[in-house]
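Incident log entry.

Two folding requests arrived from the same account within the same minute. Monitoring flagged them as a possible duplicate submission, but the sequences differ. Recording both here for audit purposes.

Request one:
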Amino acid sequence: MPITLVFLSVVVIWSTTPLAIVWSTLGTSHHFGVAVRMTLGLSICLLLLLIKKQKLTLTPSSLLNYWYAGLGVFVTLGLIYYASQNLASGVISIVFGLTPIITGVFALILLKDKFFGFNKMVGLLLGLSGLLVIFSHSLTESRDLVHGLLAIAFGVVFQAFISVKLKQINAQISALETTTGALLFSAPLFIVVWFFSEGTIPEITLKGALSIAYLSTFGSVLGFISYYHLIKHASVRVVSIVPLMTPVFALLLGSLFNNETLTLMQIGGTVLVLAGLGYYEYGEKGK
């Protein structure tokens, strides 16, 4: 598949996922929505393995890879779905735009990668300043908004840690295997949480059902596989453009299709986050 098409698919999927998550909980609970999404996504992955006549690699490093990837899916998506009850989809996307910066910090700690260049530090400070501005606005609104932002912030940090940990493990397996292994680990956990927290199948709106189907097929399968493919075959600079573009498109989609609005404080915080991310990735002098 042409790398340009893969890049565009990742941008489209990442831009639409926050809004789809918000819609997927319409008429139902976030526990049920994410449990169904993961179960359907796992079924699709297993079907793809069957069609390709491919088996999961079961070496020690691959099993460790599946465990960490699955833990990342369970914790991060669980927090995103929790936060989606109170946060606009655009805000969720903006906060997650900080992932590359936080990933750089964990890469310094775990992989001893070079991080403390001038542009990296300025980008980090700008991004964190933007996050603080968004948080300060929410403190004046409601406790639920604060809880939602805290959940998303922790999700960003945990996902960044997991991505660096997977890089450290460096299991030689395909993107489909990683996705399938992660869902094999996380899907049962989501089902258990739903069963013990609710255990009932609620009525669901058509929009909610279509959103879950979209998230299962594109968000949980095609999105992961495309992103892993992009990491493997594209330059770091190309991959880094994704989190710069997706928050902008997510904000536009939330405004156009879900009547989401941002206050001046939130817009200011968003500008700082995007400026920090841009300077983090492209602010290096020289060359």
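Request two (distinct sequence, not a duplicate):
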Amino acid sequence: MASLLATPALGFAVPATNSEVGAEEQSAKRQRNALEEVVVTAQKREEDIQSVPLSVTAISGDDIVDKNMADMNEVAVYVPNLDVLATPSFPSIYMRGLGSSYNRGFEQSVALLIDDVYYGRASYINQATMDLAAIEVLRGPQGTLFGKNASAGAIHFRTAMPDTEFGFKGDVLLGDLDQQRVRLMATGPITDTLRWRVALMSQLRDGSVYNTTAEIDEENIDTQNARMRVVWDAAEDLTIGLTLNAALIRQHGEGSQLIRARDRHLAAMQVFDPETTADPFDERTAKDTQGRVARDAYDVTLKADWSFGNDYLLTSITNYTWLDEEVRLDADFSPIPFLILDNNEVLEQYSQEFRITSPPGDVEFVGGLFFRFFVNQCEAIGAISSPPQ
């Protein structure tokens, strides 16, 4: 058939020999068996994952979309030795059994990075999975390249870069509990040297756990995310990028349920709410105080890459982050008017990194300086409520 298509005027085809057919089959088989190259930046340079002497799991942005991974709870299913609780009320990250509990006084033992910028709060894990190029999970201590707050490992989110051609993507997800998720992305050039990318996400869902005392559905989803990224090729050897991020999260109640209680304790609770149960599968809870989460997060990053000499790369990363978070919960987890906890925080973070990376060769090195200054205002108030008169 190949000869017939190449020389149709002849009107006949020369059959391939057995050796030619076998060679073609072997070539096709080798192509099918070939592994796709996975590029990671685990050592602050782009490398094939097979050449990196670290325990690394990389998930591409296409896989995240194809498998419909909505948040890090679902991403963690595909990553060995990673345990993530990506909830607005109590976010936490554990790797190989090591991590930091939910405490404003501690930074995470698992470093959280977005586009090479370190974020000292697990709260950012709730907004990092939008429009990604890849997620890299590095297991084990990463203090040399990612700082002292990476004793258990590091998670690096690499967001997608602007394209040189116009493009648009979008998807809509509808589900039960009136779930609505809309994701939009647009990208394109402004000039031959300037390009942009914008990503938006809105996710809404009614609560899945009914609070019989406060008469409200808890564990709802109300998340709005936005990102704008601009890249300017200022010169042949100089690239400057600006990234703006914004995220708003609102939730009324964390949806915790009573799963076990002694008869006398349950009877005491039923005095205040007769519908109180200790059934972990009824998707019902009983708490007199309505919990809430209100989180506003904004940040801006300026990155410059300058190539000089024989492909040496000098990188500057400047970041400013602002986080305002208010969390309220019923600390006794019962309908009895007793304990209320307000756990609020305002965080401002400034960071600057200078890094020099050698070109590939027999001798390779990475060196740099990192400065970080943050102002953290925490307010934890435990109150004792009194029963209504």
